[in-house]
Amino acid sequence: MKLKALTLNGFKSFADKTKIEFQPGMTGIVGPNGSGKSNIIEALRWVLGEQSVKSLRGGKMPDVIFAGSQTRAPLNRAEVVIELDNSDGFLKQQPPELVITRRIYRNGESEFLINQKKVRLREIVDLFMDTGLGRESFSIISQGRVEAIFNSKPLERRVLIEEVAGVLKYKKEKHRAQKE
Ligand code: ATP
Ligand code: MG
User: Which atom of ligand 1 is nearest to the CA of 42?
Assistant: First the structure.
C-alpha cells in the first residue's frame, strides 16, 4: 500500500486547500520554524482516526480548524483527505484505490468518509487495525518523541521497545494472572 496524496483544507495553518503528492521513494518536508511541517504530520494522524487532542497539540478537537490570522478570518471547517494505492491488497477486502476523508465543524460535529461514503470512526479504526498504521501506532514518531527515546533510562527504553513489539499487552496479562 502507498500513500499517494494528502490534501489539507482549513486544517490548522493550512487555510487554503493544499495537496501534497507523494512520489515513489522517500519524501522530506522542509521549511522554517512554524511553517506547518508538524501540522502536515498531524493531519495524517488525524485522518487516520486520531482522537487524542493532546497529541494534536490542541485543547479541543475543533482547534484543528484554521483559527484565523492577521489577514484572514477563521474558518468553520477543516478537512483532510488521503489517497491510498491499495493495489497490492495490503488492506484486506478493500478496493485498489481508497480515498479517506475526515471533516470537522466548529460545533464539534465531524464526519468520516471512505470513497465518498459516510462511515463511522469505528470503520476507519478497523480498516487500519493490525497494520501498524492508524492511531496509537508507532509508525508516526512526533517531534520531541525522538529526544524522549534518546534521553530515556534503559528500563524506560525497554518498555518502549516492548510496546512496539506488542509484548507489553501479554506482560500485563501475565502480571494480572499472577496476582489472582
Ligand atoms: P518547527 O520547525 O518549529 O517544528 P513546524 O514547521 O513543525 O515548525 P508547525 O508546528 O507545524 O510548524 O506549525 C505551527 C504553526 O501553525 C504556528 O504558527 C501556529 O500558529 C499555526 N497553527 C496551529 N494551529 C493553528 C490553527 N488552528 N489555525 C491557524 N494556525 C494554526
Ligand atoms: Mg515541527
Answer: 11
Every domain of the chain and the residues it spans:
2-140, 144-180
Q: Does the beta carbon of 23 sit less than 6 angstroms from any atom of ligand 1?
A: no
Beta-carbon count within 10 A of 100 CB: 21
Residue 13 CA: nearest ligand 1 atom is: 30
pLDDT tens digits in sequence order for the chain, 180 residues long:
999 999 999 999 999 999 999 999 999 999 999 999 999 999 999 999 988 888 888 999 999 999 999 999 999 999 999 999 999 999 989 999 999 999 999 999 999 999 999 999 999 988 887 777 776 666 787 777 778 778 889 988 887 777 777 676 677 788 889 998
ipTM: 0.98
Q: Which ligand is nearest to the CA of 30?
A: 1
Q: What is the pTM of this model?
A: 0.85
107 annotated to bind ligand: no
Q: Are 113 and 100 in contact (CB under 8 A)?
A: yes
Q: Ligand 1 atom 26: the closest Cα is on which residue?
A: 12
Q: Count other Cβ atoms within 10 Å, centred on residue 1.
A: 16
CA-nearest of 144, 52, 72 to 64 is 52
Q: Which atom of ligand 1 is nearest to the CA of 41?
A: 11
CATH architecture, domain defined by 2-140: 3-Layer(aba) Sandwich (3.40)
